[in-house]
Amino acid sequence: MNSIRINYAPSLITKRQLSMNLSRLTPSMQRMRAAASRKYATDYASLNLPVDRGSLGRVQKLVKEKRKLNPTLIVVAGIGGSNLGTIAVQEAVLGASYNLNGRPRILYADTVDTHSIGFIRKEIEKELRKEKRVILVGVSKSGGTTETIANFSILAETIKRHRKDYRRLIIVTTDKGSRYWSFARQEGYAVLEIPKNVGGRYSVFSPVGLFPLGMLGIDLSSLLKGAAQMRKLCLGSLRNPAAVGAATIYANWKKGKTIHDTFLFAKDLESLGKWYRQLMGESIGKEKDLKGKKVFRGITPTVSIGSTDLHSMAQLYLGGPYDKYHSIITVEETGPLQRVPRGKGYGALVNHVEGKTLAAIMDAIVSGVKAAFIKGRRPFNAIHLPDRSAESIGQLLQLKMMEMMHLGHLLNVNPFDQPNVEDYKIETKRFLEHP
Ligand code: PA5
């Protein structure tokens, strides 16, 4: 198996700081190791998803059944933790432009945007009128998220109007016993369970991500194999990538780096950056610490795409305040390489560009950025993926989730709850009741 390579050396923390922070992670490591043998009984439940053969088997069975229907379109109605991981893996492995040529296509119904849901509805109708099949997956852990239920209702009723066999085309993924669960059962839809204690932002390896990704033909076993390999590594010695990652982010936060920028030098990984944005935003952005004291803690996650955003943000990153810690993520290019032609005069426009592959030019840009960061004493870590395979992406996602659990411990906040997200959800329901 090709492993991802990580370099924390440019994070500009001393060996002493690193050792100190790592030793502070001992209780967190102990909790993780204990949780590894307790299935879904603890807050760390998601750690056990990559090795849950039963869950994988159930998802694969349903995927096999639904793929036999030969659907041309998959629609996922879900938001936040209920679709960000799916989008991240889909775009990383199949490409952000997958829908242009890939079949079945996939569309995501997340926010209640009249225009975009209207578009998805028309696409569903178009397929159904052509006698093609569409699969709608409603995903909501709580089963009560306003946007998801509103979008699901519109799209499900559209399918119902066109197809007598609509029950075969609609699937619901939710917590066992939620109202959505009972509703789906009553309607006769297939239901997939999100294991207890697996929070939305940690649920990509549960049926939440696995079912739609499997419908697209992504190799679920490889995805989980990569995640399981990282899990094993990070449950091993204390000096593991997740713990070192958390220790370096924490040390930089203590030095005033309150912004964490995920700088992805591959366009198809942008959604992976957005998945991480939720993971960091919700896990450690907290009003109260573990003792209930008001601390208003957090690190603001941002996402940059290289080299595109160098042309809008490099000035700030290299000349602005020393408040950022970057995670530079690169990928080995394994597909057909694009090359700048020789002898056509392009060398006169940009020196040394003729005959170079775009991958080589990107490498030069990444090396240039790293050198400039080092020169300017701008801290960063570097992660290199051997390819865009499901296995490599599985490793990276698992690493980041375990890193976040450790970071919560270092920052003395609960990385698993999101009480203030609930605040706005409750307020929204009040306004719906009394507009
Ligand atoms: O991470 C979280 O808990 C949230 O972002 C949720 O995923 C999001 O609000 C959607 O919630 P649900 O899956 O319950 O519909």
Write up this protein.
Helix content is 48%, strand content 15%. The protein has helices spanning 15-24, 26-35, 53-67, 84-94, 98-101, 114-129, 146-162, 179-187, 207-215, 220-235, 241-254, 270-284, 310-319, 358-375, 390-410, 419-433, and strands at 5-7, 73-77, 105-109, 134-140, 170-175, 190-194, 259-264, 286-288, 294-297, 300-305, 324-331, 380-385. The N and C termini lie far apart (56 Å). Strands 1-12-11-7-10 form a 5-stranded mixed sheet, with helices on both faces. Strands 3-2-4-5-6 form a 5-stranded parallel sheet, sandwiched between helices. By secondary structure, the chain is of the alpha/beta class. The model has no long low-confidence stretch (mean pLDDT 96). The radius of gyration is 23 Å and the shape is globular. It has 2 domains: 5-35 and 235-411, Rossmann fold (3-Layer(aba) Sandwich), CATH 3.40.50.10490; 45-221, Glucose-6-phosphate isomerase like protein, domain 1 (Rossmann fold, 3-Layer(aba) Sandwich), CATH 3.40.50. The chain binds 5-phosphoarabinonic acid (PA5).
